[in-house]
Amino acid sequence: MAAPGEAIQTHGWLIACDDQARVVRRHSANLGDIFPQAGPLLGARLRELLGSEESHRLRNLLSRFSAPARPALVSGCRFPGVEGAFDAAVHFNGEDMVLELEMSDAHSGLAALDRAAALIDRLDDLAGPDEIGKRAAMLVGAALDAEHTFFLLLEADNARLAGAYRRLGAPPPAPESLQAFWPGRRLFAVGDVDAPEIPLRSEPDMLPLDAGMTALRAPGEPLRQWLREAGFRSAAFLPVASDGLRLALIVGLGRQPRFPGLGLRGALELFAEALALRLRLVLPAHHQPWAPDAPADPLSVLIVEDQHMVATQLAAALDEAGARVVRICGTVSAALDALDETFDAALLDYTLGGENVIPVAEQLEARGKPFVFASGHGDDLDLPLAFAGKPIVGKPYKIDKIVAALRAAKGK
């Protein structure tokens, strides 16, 4: 059996690339089933595997969902020369971009949002944690079609159960270590405790993958043993952060193999966020929120980006990093009109719809205002000779690198 982080379940495929989503550094051993014609997969260019359109879409999605706790989910991906459609979950893992693929699920896309909204509506009439726990267990159990579902309220040190609620029958005894329960930062499902593992293949000298956000990761042996002894083949563990000292968790167990698709998992994770907010209202407060001091020299930024959601998420992330966004522009003409604003540096998405951002860059250069290019093509971007050597940040965006590049441009 592989060590933690070195194998996935049989329900999908995994690719890990560098943080600019360019080169494959790690992949599941079954990836050749999708791309049999690709030759050696370690070191392959992601754009050549997935196609330019899908790889660019994934980079844009990562720019929108750059927070560690939030993977980007997309349904209906199609790759050149590959039959069928795939659902994808993509997230940053340190300096790696991790892409998980599954065959498309009937509950993908907007259906997941509808399902999450229906679950959240069922919490409105509840006031106490016991009522909320029982209702949440019932709703999640029904969504998963699980035989046993229960709600746990764990102390932050994972030392004991603070409460347990059941939907059908008595929950099995808790394992000796509650760490075997806790799934990490997102829903973790075990499709079939008796299924084989798919090992990961990595470039030499790479550390094992930190699989805390990898939904397809294989379960550890303690969890497998606990499920077998309790008489279950499948399980889903849905984490719910409640406050600084306690963590809530919903566990659904099944006697038959069952792996919830990406759409259903996404709906349940949205439900868990709403549940966490509801629990914070009914549980006693144990700590005061902490906020870091604002930087003494905030960076003011002009954003030129035609993808509205990407721009909005980028602005929020820059704000959290201590920068101040003075304006967001989605077209060349709007950006030219904004050049009289006062700002320290500009971030220019190279491609704006059907045009490029060069007219804006020319005006900024003429006015002596610093700027940084951004592009889904990263270092492959072919800049005009006049701008050769200008800094480029690649998509998916990494906020620390963007801030560093903008500050460096300002300092020149």
TrEMBL record:
Stretches assigned to the Response regulatory domain: 300-410
Database matches in InterPro entries: CheY-like_superfamily, PAS-like_dom_sf, PAS_2, Sig_transdc_resp-reg_receiver
Keyword Cell wall biogenesis/degradation among UniProt keywords: no
Any Gene Ontology biological process: regulation of DNA-templated transcription
Assigned keywords, A-Z: Phosphoprotein
Modified residues (4-aspartylphosphate): D349
Protein origin, superkingdom: Bacteria
SMART domains hit by this protein: REC (SM00448)
PROSITE patterns for the chain: RESPONSE_REGULATORY
Pfam families referenced in this protein's UniProt entry, alphabetically: PAS_2
Keyword Phosphoprotein annotated: yes
The protein's name in its UniProt record: Response regulator receiver domain-containing protein
